[in-house]
Amino acid sequence: MPSAAFESQVVPQAVSEDGPVWPQSVVTVVGNPRAGSRTAAAAASVAELLASELGTPYRIDELIDLVTFAPAIFEGDRAKDHPALENAIDLVSSASVIVIATPVYKGSYTGLLKSFLDVLRPGALAGAVVVPVTVSAAPSHKLLADHHLRPVLAELGASVPVPGVILEERDLEDLQVVLSHWIRTNAGIIQATTIALQPVAEPTPAR
Known about the structure:
Layout: E1 24-30, H1 38-54, E2 58-65, H2 70-73, H3 83-94, E3 97-103, H4 111-119, E4 129-136, H5 144-155, E5 165-168, H6 175-196
Parallel strand pairs: 1-2, 1-3, 3-4, 4-5
């Protein structure tokens, strides 16, 4: 796992009785069909560095490596009967920030990730900020997965307010350096969006 490379530049917001619900959770989803992939390592780095930059109200929940329960994802109507898949659905449906990572596969994101997103209920990602992370082997393909993924995320209700983390395989050799500018540029926008998406408290009825 990466070490925290930066001191947080985002000041956590004060919590009032009617303010945002803390802590905010950062969940990571990996759609690489190979276990222990470099895509998973890159996604974990993004989540850890982002949570560190956002500050203490943001906690990292577990990394969901879809390949570890891939057979359950492809079972159609019976998919939700599997505990690991049900847990993953619950985590992403309640997350504040979701880092979704995929290699560029045949000009798009992987079928494994698409099948998982298809299992989610309509609007499951409403209220969440999603950060796409894509890893490509060639510069000419680097934008393809991000381009195809965003409409699906929007259909599920997610907010994607910042550019994705677009990586080439060569970037993985010195990932923290590659990520430093992206984190500093976008962490504040991500935090502001998560706060804006918090449910508004119902007013207390006058007596």
